[in-house]
Q: What sequence folds into this?
């Protein structure tokens, strides 16, 4: 697997665009398009929130029932959630407009929105935006970057990644972009994510690969415990790489899954580290848990704890908070068996063992917690399962951003 | 039921004290004692966290197996959690010392601690503190207040309340105090709470009344989603009111439950409103839910959401966040049926109905959210059940307090 530059335009046959449409704010890109020159198999995973935004309901229909997908239209600024019938009509009009301009069927168009809940999208601006997108789309790296920038809300960096693998002598490319910074919580991902690939694969296996992979990637991140109404992750596969179509779980399928896992993990970590107000990526790895599910629950409980997050922000080696968050996770264990370590790229330090604090230097521990990527390693001494979860610290800026997000 | 001044010394035969023992900090009261001149029936509820502080394990033993309880010794500053065998020995020595000074049995002494996790308590200072407590205890209102002040950590106000009821011509008094500001989350209460009463009641019914009542009081508050290692709520009943002992669920039992409910609700709301960094008490009442459990889950999901809490802090009528928090709670419902209102003491305003925003004034809504007590009323239109949960807003100061709590 080779990591390459680029994002959604890295794979053959994909174009993208990002434009200013003044959906909510002036002078910033706020609409994006992803387009494939040929029809794609599509797979998707969507929010588990009972309150689903209109585009989520639209996309669930399209992914389930359309023969193929060929375009995605995204806007930021307004989420098109809690918008009733008018909100769903807005999705239909967007798809109609894009279909007409691109010469494809409306049910081959996915739509996605992110931003404030409860406002209606100004439909005229949205449709004018679709026109600009259709005119300006291109298959360049720059066009992919413009799209990645256009879907940002409170994100501070645009997020994209791409890799290549070889399947039977053919080069297959997988690329993706995502946005997500607040309202980020496992189950599922609370974000918009778009992955494009030129691989030839059956729709069923594409969906299975995606559904399996999110469990240990996007569903293992949390910024603030709030599962959004708009979470959407879709993969489009147009088959242009010319590999023998994958229709069974063969070696090629495993190679593709590995590539997809790299894309998903990278995007998920980018989101966690760019959490609203974050100054650090806060990773928790649980090893030797009794079961995989226990390991997931334990690691997510730690990265989801406000008190742990605040301790990371304050570089405060207040290990009791980490132990406490493991303790209320719902998983049963003997606290005396657990070992806690703080880690950064250079160093691992034992903090807690045999039921009491280890003999560590507060100063050294605080230095580790001041790293841009901080890891808490938890050894449960109970079994062989492990899991990793990613979050970020809790800073003044998180509160600032969310106390007046709309103003 | 009459609400009266006072706290743990309001009921007949109870004494209290609060002294400076320099457990962790100088120049502040940090040890408290509650003492009854006669033996008490005791009931208790304790943290559900797997990681239980030493005093929690001690008290669980005492409440389950001791014939009676006559004293409680509390320290703030250090939680005596994650302290291994040494921590448990510390409880035993505290009980021995108090028993010797008070002329009672060591297994009639409860202990409780709150503060930082993972440090050992300096035993010499703790035992010296017990001596000061035993010398200075008194049955005055002032002594009760001193005790309520001594158990505070990041609390900004001391918390006590008392009521009186008449049972068969006898005046029965119930009083209580608690502390709790951070690490506050349902299941259970994440706090220290002590209720004293001179009622005569069987131990079984005292425990049953307490266990039932916490479900809709202490377990319905949340400051930060972190369930502490030290949560303890105990009720001591010494029988000195001279009422006919309650041994069945008669009318007197119901009157006592009502009094206990008032005490618990008042203390729980005081804790929620005094959440770390809080500028407002944030209440969510869910009505017409399909079941009581649904109503509890829905209301707790809203007051537990960082995004809702930040919206309250910012006085931002961003109603989508409240709807979103209902949606990811795990309860199934039709978002188009739900109505959302913002309320304060003077006004109720419809915000969301029929799947879309109601026609409300942002300015007026923002004014409501700027009140010291803000209520979000949620009408599910599904059944007859209701529940109320209490939390607080999320402010810069929460982060500040928790980023350097120990320094």
A:
């Amino acid at each position: 697997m080779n990591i390459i530059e680029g994002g959604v335009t890295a794979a053959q046959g994909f174009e993208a665009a990002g434009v200013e449409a003044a959906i909510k704010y002036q002078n910033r890109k706020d609409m994006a398009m992803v387009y494939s020159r040929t029809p794609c198999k599509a797979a998707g995973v969507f929010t588990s929130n009972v309150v689903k935004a209109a585009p989520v309901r639209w996309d669930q229909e399209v992914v389930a029932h359309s023969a193929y997908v060929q375009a995605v239209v995204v806007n930021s600024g307004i989420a098109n959630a809690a918008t009733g019938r008018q909100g769903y009509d807005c999705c239909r009009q967007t798809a109609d407009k894009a279909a007409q301009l691109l010469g494809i069927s409306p049910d081959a168009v996915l739509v996605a929105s992110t931003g404030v809940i409860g406002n209606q999208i100004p439909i005229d601006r949205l449709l004018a935006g679709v026109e600009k997108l259709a005119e300006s789309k291109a298959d360049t790296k720059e066009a992919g970057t413009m799209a990645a920038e256009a879907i940002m809300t409170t994100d501070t960096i645009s997020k994209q990644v791409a890799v290549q693998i070889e399947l039977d002598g053919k080069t297959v490319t997988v690329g993706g972009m995502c946005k997500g910074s607040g309202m980020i919580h496992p189950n599922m991902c609370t974000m918009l994510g778009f992955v494009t690939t030129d691989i030839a694969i059956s729709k069923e296996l594409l969906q299975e690969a995606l559904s399996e992979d999110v469990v240990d990637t996007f569903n293992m991140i949390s910024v603030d415990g709030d599962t959004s109404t708009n979470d959407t992750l879709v993969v489009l596969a147009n088959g242009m790489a010319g590999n023998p179509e994958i229709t069974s779980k063969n070696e090629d399928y495993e190679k593709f899954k590995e590539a997809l896992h790299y894309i998903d993990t990278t995007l998920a970590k980018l989101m966690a580290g760019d959490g609203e107000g974050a100054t650090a990526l806060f990773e928790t790895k649980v090893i030797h848990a009794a079961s995989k599910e226990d390991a997931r629950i334990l690691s997510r409980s730690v990265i989801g704890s406000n008190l742990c997050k605040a301790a990371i922000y304050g570089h405060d080696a207040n290990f009791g908070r980490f132990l406490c968050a493991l303790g209320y996770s719902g998983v049963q264990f003997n606290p005396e068996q657990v070992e806690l370590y703080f880690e950064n790229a250079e160093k691992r330090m034992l903090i807690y063992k045999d039921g009491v604090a280890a003999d560590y230097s507060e100063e050294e521990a605080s230095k580790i917690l001041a790293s841009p990527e901080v890891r808490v390693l938890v050894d449960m001494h109970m079994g062989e399962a492990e899991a990793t979860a990613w979050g970020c610290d809790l800073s003044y800026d998180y509160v600032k951003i969310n106390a007046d997000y709309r103003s």
